[in-house]
């Protein structure tokens, strides 16, 4: 999480070479330990707050900030609590000197500050309807309606600390019906009740991260749990759907036995065809087996689930090609023998 973006205009990604020194976004009043150094990009040239640019990665520790639905929630990295505290202190130190917005200001899209439950928060003004201002607060992942009179202009020095909230959705799952059930909401809240959560990013979009949510040090994820409890389905064609189908196969001894028997029959058939004329063939006899392991072994060797099935398909194709090649050589050998007999 060492790269950051500048938005909402041209998106610029800071290169690793520019992430060198500790950032001091509050000029002389506070040192803020959030890594990115923006080089020659001056604070007053930024149009909004920096945002996380997270890569598809291993599991990282997070805590839930705001839950709207299983496909719409906000988290923050667990190890950034000190950064948030420093940010809050820095805002409090300078807020008394800041100006409110005037009636002439075109405020939509501008950064602002507002006090929420005795804490000053950074926000982006989303809309303005007769002095009722909708503001999205970037560090807590919430959108609230505020009066214009309580908003203050955000100084450019406060643009630099990245927004603490990360917008996410549960990837590879869909609601059982057209919308999420009340029980699905309760399952999500119960699962995330503990502050010790981990997430694995699987998909990136321009606005959200598709993730799997786990409890810390636990391999069971919330995505699968919603499906297991009958309140979601795996998205058709997704990796989760394929993995679950493989797991169901492994749990059904009849299906595994049937598949292994089918492949055993194929192997015996190939061996029988080749052995019929092995004495007449000058080449070494080739024994073909579609797989050196049981079907179960092949499938369980790779937890992702795709490579093993493709391996079986490739082996079948390879076997067919070898058989065709052998049939051709067998035919040529027969023709050669007939020609020799005629002579």
UniProtKB/TrEMBL annotation:
Residues 328-343 have a biased composition (Basic and acidic residues). Residues 309-343 are annotated as: Disordered. Residues 57-170 form the Tudor domain. Transmembrane segments: none annotated. InterPro entries: SNase_OB-fold_sf, Tudor. PANTHER family: RING FINGER PROTEIN 17. This is Tudor domain-containing protein.
